[in-house]
From TrEMBL:
UniProtKB keywords: Signal
Annotated source species: Bradyrhizobium rifense
Domain of life: Bacteria
Region forming the signal peptide: 1-23
Protein name: DUF3617 family protein
């Protein structure tokens, strides 16, 4: 009986500690410069959002599950595929005027840095740093 209780407790601790379901965990707020995180994002009532004048301090996005929020549009991820340390995503994005399908690819550099890769232009990348919120 004691081994079962121990194993059950161990499993519950793993769940409570939030062991990631994927090795490529990129949820959170990301900015083009780690020094601009406080100018781009704010946290209110436990939710991360963009500051009113965030576009003056660089780009950024908030990834939360299957939702990506940018400064001007919101996207819902329809498909996601992991290929080594690269995540490929196809998302439906909407702004105030229209909707469109967008392909995103992100290469995981380390736990706090990703590089957006643009299809057909492998030499062009845009780096983002995770913002501690």
């Amino acid at each position: 009986m004691k081994p079962i209780r121990f194993i059950s407790t161990l499993v519950l601790c793993w769940i409570a500690l939030g062991i990631p379901a994927s090795a490529l965990e990129i949820n959170g707020a990301w900015a083009t410069s780690p020094s601009s995180c406080s100018q781009v994002f704010m946290k209110k009532d436990g939710a991360i959002s963009f500051r009113q004048d965030s576009d003056q301090y660089g780009g950024g996005f908030i990834l939360d599950g299957d939702r990506i929020r940018g400064q001007m549009q919101t996207c819902t991820i329809n498909r996601r595929k992991e290929d080594g340390n690269v995540i490929h995503m196809i998302a439906k994005c909407a702004d105030d005027i229209m909707t469109s399908n967008v392909q995103f690819s992100a290469k995981i550099i380390d736990g706090n840095t990703i590089a957006r890769i643009f299809p057909g232009m492998p030499e062009f990348t845009l780096s983002y740093s995770r913002c501690a919120m």
